[in-house]
Amino acid sequence: MFIVDDAVFSMECFNWFSERTGETVIPSDKIVIFRFLLEKKHQSGHEQKETYMDLDVGAFWTLLNEILMLLTDVHKTERLPRSVTISQLRVEMAKVERVVVYWALCVNYNNPDPFGSLEKEFITADGLLNNKFCLYVYYITSACYWGIDKLETAIAGRDISSIGEGELTSDGVFIFKVNENNEFIGNDEGQEKFIKDLVRVGYGGDFDEFIISVKEDISNQTMGPYHQQLALARGYELMGISDFTPVPLTETWRRLFTTYFDGEEDNYAIFYNTYTHQCIFYICLDFLSLDKDQLGIDYLPVYKIFSANKFSKTYSDDIKELLNTKLIRKQLYTLYKKKI
User: Fold this and answer.
1) Where do runs of H (alpha helix) occur along 128-178?
2) What is the biggest distance separating any 2 CA atoms in the chain, rounded to whole angstroms?
3) Coil, helix or strand for 157?
4) Is 231's pLDDT higher than 70?
């Protein structure tokens, strides 16, 4: 990375755009998969847009960040519909990529409010998008593709659109069989207390330390190499740091999602109810030293669903339904000679 006109840039980014200079004609940019993000975030009460080019660049920039959150698996309110396949997702991202390259290289919007909600520092004095914008869209787009690759690995060849919320009986009916080793099925209050007691034992009653650990684990599980590069640019902007050596994933998270945990990290109950599966995975895999095969729960990111194992044909939206509380009690006693 290097500095151009007081903005971070890179040859990798330059080459990426250079390779696409001949691809500025967009054969199709109809909004399909990501329409649900637009409808809920940008278009309430407004005319519905049919194509990405119908959006002003400010709305598109906001949408690009929404897509980044979704595919990084840190979107708080949205998930990818199960009907969407990986191949469809790649096609949709290719549309997004073509549009953003078209804007960055070719379009100079010249109207009274040309960029809407787009950050003003992306615009030069003559109204053109500057190097900083190009760098951001390159690393954001690359991070989205990285998220798709990661999701494809997690799926392990399964057709997510065909799995059901339960087990298929001979009559063709799906019946979800909850884990028979979970003592708290239908008793959410009891199960929440069970996990809280487990955290109390594991962290000596220091719930703040547990929350810090889970936050760090979230950053380590979700941040990747392109997020790191984006964080270096943010470090120069926010703190004037011109050392472009990649920073740890926890620092990457801090620079990109500074306020993400605001209003949640100071209250265990709120934090647990917001990040339930992250808390459960962390206490089971870290404190209890169980691996995911022993735990018997497979998480499919972005779709935000859980299955009993990597070959299961069924899923659940709630990790607690698949939790083996008897195994947890046994492992706690085996390792620490403690009971809850």
Assistant:
1) 131-155
2) 71
3) coil
4) yes
| pLDDT tens figures, 73-120 | 999 999 999 999 999 999 999 999 888 777 666 554 444 344 444 555
Classify 339 as helix, strand or coil: coil
Question: What is the reported pTM?
Answer: 0.87
Give the Cα separation of 196 and 211 in Å (integer).
12
Q: Is 35 exposed, middle or buried (0-12, 13-18, 19+ CB in 10 A)?
A: middle
Three-state DSSP at 173 gives coil
Q: Which two tokens stand for residue 106?
A: 């070719």
Nearest to 268 by CA among 197, 215, 211, 219: 211
Q: 3-state DSSP call for residue 333? A: helix
Would you say residue 166 has pLDDT above 70?
A: no
Six-digit token pair at 217? Answer: 């684990």
Cα angle vertex 151, ends 150, 157, to 5°?
Answer: 110
Q: Which two tokens stand for residue 312?
A: 């299961």
**Residue closest to 26 by CA, chosen among 114, 138, 103:** 103
Q: What one-character DSSP code corresponds to residue 108?
A: -
Decide if 339 contacts 332 (C-beta within 8 A). Answer: yes
Q: Where are the alpha helices (DSSP H) in the chain?
A: 11-18, 35-41, 57-71, 86-106, 131-155, 188-202, 207-222, 225-239, 249-256, 268-274, 276-282, 292-295, 325-336
**Collapsed DSSP state (helix, strand, coil) of residue 51:** strand
Tokens of 311: 């070959």
Describe the chain by its helix, strand, coil percentages, rounded to 5.
50, 5, 40
Q: Phi, psi (5° rounding) for residue 8?
A: -75, 135
